[in-house]
Design brief:
The structure holds 2 protein chains of 2 kinds. Chain A contains 14 helices and 2 strands. A two-stranded antiparallel ribbon of chain A has the order 1-2. In chain A, a hairpin with a 6-residue loop joins strand 1 and strand 2. The longest helix of chain A is centred in the first third of the chain and has 36 residues. In chain A, 26% of the residues are buried. By secondary structure, chain B is α+β, with helices and mostly antiparallel strands. Chain B contains 9 helices and 20 strands. A 6-stranded mixed beta sheet of chain B has the order 6-7-8-3-9-10, with helices on both faces. The longest helix of chain B is centred in the middle third of the chain and has 18 residues. Chain B is elongated, with a radius of gyration of 25 Å. Classes of the chains: A mainly alpha, B alpha+beta. At the A-B interface, helix 9 and helix 10 of A face strand 6 and helix 3 of B.
């Protein structure tokens, strides 16, 4: 009896730890942001009102609550800038994630089919870029992509182009940067599922008359779907809110939502609108997560 | 036979197919096939003919090359040399999906994301069969392996025995000319394995199909196969019927690999008509029958199966003309191992060696059973001995 208690307490703590973490570092800050998003901008410290002052008494608190409004959300819906920023963020994220999947899948598949001892080396090679700061790597790309950069020099030397191509401040540069930065996040979950898959299943498919492309589409790919789902989510969600890469590599004529947020927050000092934009972004990002979970649940139910 | 089978006409179908050579005609010819992995010669010049309708077993310890040979038949490995002829056509370089051969995999390799029905239908869909025909064939296969009612289950919702049946149904569904079975029963427990052995034999006989099974279990090979090829270090050591393999092994290694055996090394001393006297160190002079192919002189091993050795308290009752020919050895019971149907006695011979004797427990209450340290006479006839080159 007593021994059970000894183990029960740490176990119970371990079980609630993630919830404590969520409450402290997600729910509480979320409540702050939500409150700010319902406030009005003001030239003050902090730069919004009303401010909840718990020492001012019950009536003041009631008045503060009454002053909250959803005006900022209305603004987000009515002003094209925000709508365009959301649409562009989603377009960029969908395109980049598709590119990542197309490039990452063959790499992950190749890794999973390497001899065991080479797999570890390949894994290190995938992770090794992380040892350099993310910002430095993006600046390196600026260097490569600029007018007299490495890429143009190579293209000119190979006589593939007659004049330097403008890469920097284009969507192409941004996609190169995003795909480059997020590739490991696509490869690793894909590799994990593909490495777990038994090659004998592919042999069985081919034994039953499936040519190689059918083996892939009917067996390998469906069985790697959990990895595809994980990789897509790991890339898609942060790309939607990506700020640094589009800011440094893309042009300034159309902004992603991350850049818009930055602008509202730091340039316009409009914390309430920035907060509202962040809240909407969060809701937009929750949708694919819920969809993924729904799909997984359905797959489980089909199994019954 | 097929008429007895509800809802199936596989045998009739099989007979109707032109591509099937008639039973007894050669179906598969393996000619000097070799496969090397790095410096390891996994299969080293194997030649073998398999007749249509045969149940053939490839038997050998792990690493002997039997699985590699099977994988070359399925097309998962390409031989470095030699030819594989199926119905006269060389298929050695054909890809797996181009061969009219199907395989039942060791751990079944069922597709975990597909239901029982879709697993069985997989090969039929690839063959471009019409929807209605697929449904009929799947129902046929499900009935054949007695899986009715489980068609919608996924593999992880089945027991080991049920999964084994799905794998069998899936491999049989395309009605291959040749079915390869890679250790098909290894994952089942003993009772289930024995009943499944019987069912597999029954199925093979009924469908008139050609089966090649790979196994390391000599009992399994002996039970099911009509012919056994024993492999050792990439080579076929002997191809024979189960009886011939057991009673007339070609080498000392085969004799030891298949079943239990007593071995006595010695030198030939004397020839007396069809009798040979071999002087052994551990069991003295033994009289043995001369093998079919006469042997010269030199060093030999005398092999005798434990169940051929009889035990008694006194020497055997002499029969006219035979007494001189019977080998009698005096000894003491050193170990008793009761196995239910039989009891195995280890007899410490006065000449120094150990002799194993297996005695059937034919009576429930055996007052004559031997006890430890009892003096006994062990005896066996010259015809029960096998002479092997040392």
């Amino acid at each position: 009896m007593s021994s059970r208690r000894i183990f029960a307490r740490p176990a119970r703590f371990a079980a609630i730890a993630p919830y404590v973490w969520m409450a402290l570092f997600f729910l509480v800050p979320f409540a702050f942001v939500l409150k700010i998003s319902l406030s009005q901008t003001a030239i003050a410290q902090p730069p919004y009102e009303p401010v909840f002052d718990l020492t001012a008494g019950w009536e003041a608190l009631k008045a503060a609550f009454a002053a909250l409004s959803v005006d900022n959300f209305r603004l987000l819906g009515s002003d094209d800038i925000y709508v365009f920023a959301y649409v562009r963020s989603l377009t960029v994220a969908v395109t980049a994630t598709a590119l990542l999947l197309l490039i990452g899948y063959p790499i992950a598949y190749g890794m999973a089919r390497l001899p065991k001892r080479w797999q570890a080396i390949a894994m290190v090679l995938v992770i090794v870029p992380f040892w350099t700061s993310f910002l430095i790597r993006i600046y390196a790309w600026i260097n490569i992509l600029q007018h007299d950069g490495l890429l143009n020099q190579i293209l000119l030397a190979l006589h593939l182009v007659s004049q330097p191509v403008v890469w920097l401040s284009t969507d192409t540069a941004m996609y190169i940067g995003i795909v480059y930065s997020y590739l490991p996040f696509m490869i690793l979950p894909l590799y994990a599922t593909l490495a777990k898959m038994e090659p004998v299943l592919e042999e069985a498919a081919s034994d039953l008359g499936a040519p190689p492309w059918q083996v892939f589409w009917l067996v390998t790919f469906p069985l790697s779907l959990p990895g595809v789902g994980a990789g897509v989510l790991l890339c898609f969600i942060p790309i939607v809110g990506e700020f640094v890469i589009p800011d440094l590599l893309a042009g300034s004529n159309s902004l992603m939502i991350g850049q818009t947020l930055w602008l509202e927050f730091f340039t316009n000092k409009d914390w309430p609108v920035a907060s509202a934009a962040a809240i909407v972004l969060l809701v937009v990002l929750l949708l694919p997560l819920l969809l993924y979970e729904r799909l997984q649940k359905r797959q489980l139910e089909q199994g019954r | 036979m097929a008429e007895e089978l509800p809802g199936t006409n596989l045998a009739a179908d099989a007979a109707a197919r032109d591509a099937f050579p008639a039973a007894g005609q050669p179906l598969l010819r393996i000619e000097a096939v070799a496969k090397t992995f790095g410096t390891f010669r996994a299969v080293d010049g194997v030649s073998l003919d398999i007749k249509a309708g045969e149940f053939f077993a490839l038997l050998g310890p792990s690493g002997c090359g039997k699985t590699t040979l099977l994988r070359m038949l399925a097309g998962f490995e390409a031989p470095d040399g030699g030819r594989i002829l199926l119905g006269g056509k060389d298929i050695a370089q054909a890809l797996p999906h181009e061969r009219p051969i199907n395989m039942m995999f060791q751990n079944y390799a069922l597709f975990p994301h597909l239901s029982v029905r879709d697993n069985i239908a997989f090969g039929l869909k690839r063959a471009g069969m019409a929807r209605a025909d697929i449904a009929t064939r799947v129902a046929e296969m499900v009935a054949l392996v007695k899986l009715e009612g489980l068609e919608k289950r996924k593999p992880d919702q089945l027991s080991g025995g049920q999964r084994q049946r799905v794998a069998l149904a899936r491999a049989l569904a395309r009605r291959p000319q040749l079915l390869l079975l890679d250790e098909p029963l290894a994952a089942l427990d003993k009772k289930l394995r024995e009943s499944t052995q019987g069912e597999l034999m029954e199925l093979q006989r009924r469908l008139g199909m050609t089966f090649i099974i790979v196994t390391h279990d000599q009992e399994e090979a002996m039970t099911m196969a009509s012919r056994i090829g024993v492999m050792k270090a990439g080579k076929l050591a002997q191809v024979a019927s189960p009886r011939e393999l057991y009673e007339a092994p070609r080498s000392r290694w085969i004799a030891e690999f298949v079943g239990d055996i007593n071995l006595f090394d010695g030198e030939s001393k004397l020839r007396d008509g069809h009798r040979l006297v071999i002087g052994t160190r551990d069991a003295g002079a033994l009289v043995v029958a001369e093998p079919r192919e006469p042997v010269g002189t030199g060093r030999f091993t005398v092999a005798i199966r434990p169940e051929k050795v009889k035990l008694s308290r006194r020497g055997p009752v002499s029969e006219a003309g035979r007494e001189t020919a019977i080998n009698t050895l005096d000894g003491v019971i050193a170990d008793i191992c009761y196995l239910g149907g039989t009891t195995t006695y280890k007899v410490k011979l006065d000449t120094g060696g150990m002799l194993q004797a297996s005695v059937a427990n034919s009576a429930r209450i055996d007052v004559d059973a031997y006890s430890l340290n009892q003096n006994v006479v062990a005896w066996f006839t010259p015809d029960d001995c096998v002479v092997l080159p040392s």
